[in-house]
Structure formats: structure tokens, C-alpha cells
Amino acid sequence: MDQPAGDKPLLALRNINITFGGVRALRDVSFEVRAGEVHCLAGENGSGKSTLIKIITGVYRPADGAEIEFDGKRYSHMSPVFAHARGIKVIWQDLALFSEMSVAENIAFSEVVGRGVRLVDYARIRSIALDALARLGVSLDVDLPLKQFAIAQRQIVAIARALVGEARVVFMDEPTASLTQSETDNLLAIVRNLAASGVAVVFVSHRLAEVLEISSRLTVLRDGRLVGVYPTAGMTQSRITELMTGRTFDAKVRAASRDDRRVVVEVDKLTRPGQFSDVSFTLREGETLGITGLLGAGRTELAMTLFGMLKPASGTVRLDGRPVHFSSNRAAIDAGIAYLSEDRLSLGLIQAQSIADNLVIASLRKILSGGLLSPGRKRDLVDRWVTDLGVKIGRPEDAISTLSGGNQQRVAIAKWLATEPRLLILDAPTVGVDVGARAGIFDIVAQLADSGLAIILISDEVPEVYFNADRILHMAQGRIVGSYDPRTYSLHDIEAAVYG
Amino acid sequence: MSALLQRLNAPFVRDMAGPGFAFLAVLIAFSLASPQFLSGATFGSVAFQLPELGLLTLAMLMPIITGGFNLAVTFTANLSGLTVAWILRANGGVDASPMVFAIAVVAAIGVGALAGFIMGLVIAFTRAHPILVSLSMMIFLRGLGEFLTRGGDVSGFPDFVHPIGHGSILGIPVPMLVFILCVIAWHVVLTRSRLGFSTYMIGSNIEATRYSGINTRRVVILVYTLSGVMCAIAGIIMMARFNSVRVGHGESYLLITVLACFLGGVHPDGGFGKALPVFVALIDLQMLSSGLNILGANQHLATAVWGLLLITVMICRWLVLHVRFNLAPDRR
């Protein structure tokens, strides 16, 4: 690749407009990327990042007047085959790999299929795959089926596949979303190598620390418009957040002592062998207890035990002073416990069904009238919670999947508040929620605590519990290994204890 | 124009659009083709023949909405019919009293419910695929029925059974009245009861439903039990219609019930589907068959035309979606 790595862009877009069903998804957006550069595309969900990538790769056709300049030539639009053949590649977040096929077949897939080869030449497939991996400085057993590899290695396979044939511009959509810290570091090193070899890399990530570390320039989109293009040098995470959301956030510790309040929950030496053991804590009205720790620390299992979906082997749970043993989560809900699942997409909400149905599902008894569900009561309940929590919806009959992550999470919280709980367990409530919408979620949490609800806030992001909880428990390998008061410990101390 | 589009998007109109359109198409086509079509005779033939298929379709509907299947509908109906027949025969045959018949009906409904209950239990607890579970039940019931009847007919019922299959009240055939009552019952259960609500939710995502505090096992068991009850009602109507019971009666309806559900807009993956559009879809199918009959077409041809109609509806549905959203962007 002997591309000029100077200021001249390899790929440039100007006057990009596109409309879906009357909504302008992009408005006069421009974008450019240079060869050998790692360029970050930043913006909240719905800001137009994916749409822009799909225009560049020819999936969508922009409105008339658009200019796409690639490698010195001008086009009014792209087509997927054309873009792919010219070396414009995308690695989507879901990777789109074939788990039953071997690593080699996955990597060489497009090359073999694309050329219309009738008989499969395994030797050629292997050599293509090995070449691509060598360019990344990685060695994997290319003959093993992909399903035997962890997500981090699959990510590398997806990158290798993008390099097969010509690769001039590579888009990476949230490549680190499911990786651990050390895996992320490896991946970032690979990305740097790739850029050094002259490929233009466009990096889309929610993790702002990575964005600052890896990229040299930053294009920010907000609500389908270009906010600006900035050099990464001198940027801070909070500045990027401001640019993405158009708002400023100042984080303050809101911890306070609630020792004068009534005890709601007392957990004593709760144990489930292999998952958690000897967990004890008390929680008072209006108090928010943060539980943090790495994935697999037993946090979710603890929450599901409190919620009646798992049975403890030993230990007791007292609710308002009385010991409770739940036969099912229904019994826990009736006793006043609510659990917001960490997996909103497949466990927290029923994506295909309507906003209204998702909101009332846990409190059907409240909308009965004469033994039958009352459409009027249902509407009242939905209206009330949609208004109270400021959920932005079209019609209550629309599928919940039409809402943004933040609004979906508000509906999920509303669903549990409608059951009128005493204890609300929030398991990773900001996963898949934009930075701007996160603040809105925590505003709601603070209001709920002020109204007297006892809250358990589970998160693997220490700052979230630090700024939003009154007390923080650190769980590791099923045990509580630390207890911190945000008023007396610094964020740095707790992060060092948890991540260190 | 936009107001019209808005109204076209209203849930009821949207659900009814497919079967309603097919209804008009069939009605107009046959009215033009044959002057005899729009007559009391056609209405009578539709109203007498529809309920057997219709009741079995209702039995298929709820399991499909949960994302499942009940392949045992026809044989559950047969076994329920046999239950009535045996109890009548053991208590006087043609001289049996109405009281015996009432007890027989309750027993038949019990048999249907039991068959459904067992399927529901197995599906709910083992998470085995409903197709396999209900297929096993279907084979079991068929074998059992054939063993007990030696493959023959059971007949010889008291006279008062005849009107249940052939009588009319206020000009409406009794089977049709029973069917309409069942449609209304299903409509209420699906749209207004907690069970119905949970049925839809389970069809879309059973785990998320369980996490929301709904006893999903109980719902699945109830759905199959109710399906079995509906089969029993179908079995009793069939018994009265044919004046005999034989294992295998109505067997050809099995797959038609599935197709009638889909024609009525029921989502093949579960989670969506309503009783009333399915009712209209059933009328479409029966009118088509009666219309072809009036034109003198072979009965087997009618079955072939049913298949064509269903394929046409699928294509139309796709066209409507495609045209309305104008090449909607990716559907992930």
C-alpha cells in the first residue's frame, strides 16, 4: 500500500442527506478519513453513525446532491459489491461469522465465494487465511471450527476476513464491546498495526477511554447532524460526552447516611455454593446500595436469589423484619421485590411486543376489572408511567423495539415501579444506553430513592456506583471483599481495588 | 389520505385486512361466476360445514400463538367423540336419556382436556418441541382409538343427538351457533384475560415472560388443556354431524387448520394472532369450497384452490408491507 499518508483524504463524503419514512436520519453531513489514520466516529445511538456507514458501503443511497470521493474519483452513491471490491470493509458488531465453519473458511469466505470457484480449494483457503492473520501478527489454528474460539479471537478472525482481497478503509463497529481489558489492549495494538500499514481505520465505540487512546481524529455526530471534526490530542472524555449530547454533566457524590431510616432488607450469610457465599448486608428505606465487581463475581446470581428465581442453600433474607422464602419470582414480586435484568434485549423486555404490554406485564392484577383485563385501566397505567418517567414514545401499541436503549430502559423501570415494590434491584441498568440517557436514568433512580424505595444498584462500572450509591459493596468470586463509603474513599481507590 | 393511512394502521383493521380482502374477492368472483352463489343454500352449506374445521382451527390457534403446535387436534376430537359414543351405547344406545348424554359430554370434555393437559405438562417441563410432543400424542391417540374400535365405526345414538349436528335455531345451524360461541369465548380469553395476555408474551419470548413474574409453565399447560377442550367440542359436533364416530374422521383437516390460522394473520413464530380474523379466514375457505362445488368443480380441486389462495395471500401480504414502507431499511 503506497498511499500518500498526508492530508489528502482517501475517502470523503459531502452533502449527505437521507430520509427514512419522513424522518431525516442525516442532514448535510460530511465525513473524511485519510489513509493510515485511525479515525473515531462518535455519537449516541440514533445519531446517524450506522446510517453513515451504510451509505459509505452502499447499503443505502443518499439523497441527490451527495458527493462521495474515494481514491480521487467521484461517485453519487456506492453499491455493496462495488464498495467491497474497492476495499471498503465493515466489521459489524455481531461479526456475521459462521460458527460451524473453520477459521480458514471464515476468513477466506468472500474470496472463495466471490470468485465463483466451483470446487473448493482448501490449500488456497488456508494460505489466504494464514496470510491475513500474519498481517495482523496473530497466529491461530485455522483448521479448528470458529465456535471453539472465544469472542476476542472471533473478533480477530473478523478483522482478518476484512483484510482479504483489498482493504483500504475498514470500519469497526463497537469492536471492544464484549472484550476484557487485556483483550481490548491486544485488539488496539492490532488496529494500530493495521493503520501503520496504510489502511484507514474508522473506529466506532462507546468506550471513550479507548477512543482517546487509539484515534488521531474524531468526527462527532448528534441527531443526524455533524457537530464537528476534532483532533484527539487535548480531548477529554467529558468534553466528548458534551459534544455527543450537547449537554454538560457534572458528577457529584450523592451518598448520604440513611441510618435513621427503617430497615427494609436484611441479608444474613446468604450462600449458593459455587456462586456466592456468606453475603450479608442491610438496606434501609431511601438507601441505594451499590454492588460492583468483575463479571462472574456472583452479583447477578445474588440478585436472582433475592428475586426468588434461585434458591439459597443457606442463610436468610428478611424483608421488613420477617424472614422470607420465595417459591418463585411471582412470590418475590408480590412481597415487594423487583428485579431489572441486566439483559434487557432478551430477558428484561419482550422486544416484539408493544410498549403498553411490556409496561403492564408484571402488574396485570392491577388492571383487572371484573376478572378481565380492562383496556381503560391499562391505558391509564401506561399513560401515568410514561408521563412520570418521561418516556418518549410514539404510540403505546408500537413494538418496544422501536424505542432507543434509554427509552426502553425507562419502560423497563416503569414496568417494575408499576408493581409498587419496596426493593428495586437494578442489574447493569445502563448497558446499551447512551451517555446522555444514562444521566436521565440515574436522575430517576435518585428520585425513587428520595421517595423511600430501597435500591440495589449493580454495575461493573465503578464510577456508576460511586456517584449514585450511598454505600458500595465489592464482590469478587462470590464474596463481599470490600465495603466503601463514597464520602470517605476516592473513586480512584475503589477502582484500584476492583480492577487491580 | 394520511388520515386514511392512519386508520389502515389501526390494529383491528390491520388484522382484518388480509382475510377481509380475501372474503370480498371470493364473494365477488363467485357472484359473477354463478348466479346461484348468493343464496340461502350457499349460506346453509357454509354454515353446516364450517364448524368442524373451525373448532379444530380454534384448538390449533392458542398453541400456535405460544409458538407451539398441537398436531393431535383431530385425534383428540375423535377420542372425545368415542367417549360420548361409548357412554351412550353402554347406557341404552338409541334409548339413552339426555342425562346420560350430558354426562357423556362432560366426560368427553374431560378426555380432551386430559390429552391437552398431558401435552402441556410435557412441553412445559421438558421443554421438548411441541411438534414432537403433540405428534407423539397424535400417534398414541390414533393407535389407542384404532385398537379400541378395531378400526370400525361406533354408531347408534338417541334421536335427540341428531339436531345438534343438523338442526337450526332461528335459521342458524346449531353447529354454527356452537362455533360462534366458541369464537367469542376464544376472543375474550385472548384479548381480555391474563391467560390470553400471557399466551402472546410467551409466544414472543418465554424467558422474558418468566422474568416478569408470570408462571409460564402454568400458562403453557392451560393453553394445551383448553386446546384439548376445544377438540372435544369439535369431536362432539362431528359425532352429531356424521351420526357415527370413527378414528380418522376429519384427519384431512389437520394441516388445513394450520393454514387457516396463517391465513387469518397468525404469526408462524408465535406472539401474534387474533380469533376474529381467523374466523373470517375460515369463512373464506369454506365459501371458496362451496362456490367451486356450485360451479360443479371436483372436490379435490377445491383443496388445490385453498392452497393457491394461501400462497396468494402470503404474496399479497409481502407486497403490502413492501409497498407501504417503501423498501424499508434493514429489519434487524
From TrEMBL, chain A:
SMART domains: AAA. It comes from the Bacteria. Keywords: ATP-binding, Cell membrane, Membrane, Nucleotide-binding, Repeat, Sugar transport, Translocase, Transport. One of its GO terms (molecular function) is ATP hydrolysis activity. Residues 11-248, 253-500 form the ABC transporter domain. Signal peptide: none annotated. Belongs to the ABC transporter superfamily. This is Lipase. It comes from Pleomorphomonas carboxyditropha.
Automatic annotation (TrEMBL), chain B:
It is found in: Cell membrane. CDD domains: TM_PBP1_transp_AraH_like. The keyword Disulfide bond does not apply. The chain crosses the membrane at residues 20-43, 55-88, 100-124, 169-190, 219-240, 301-323. Keywords: Cell inner membrane, Cell membrane, Membrane, Transmembrane, Transmembrane helix, Transport. The lineage of its organism: Bacteria, Pseudomonadati, Pseudomonadota, Alphaproteobacteria, Hyphomicrobiales. The keyword Kinase does not apply. GO terms for molecular function: transmembrane transporter activity. It is a multi-pass membrane protein. Its main location: membrane. It comes from the Bacteria. InterPro entries: ABC_transp_permease (IPR001851). This is Sugar ABC transporter permease. One of its GO terms (cellular component) is plasma membrane.
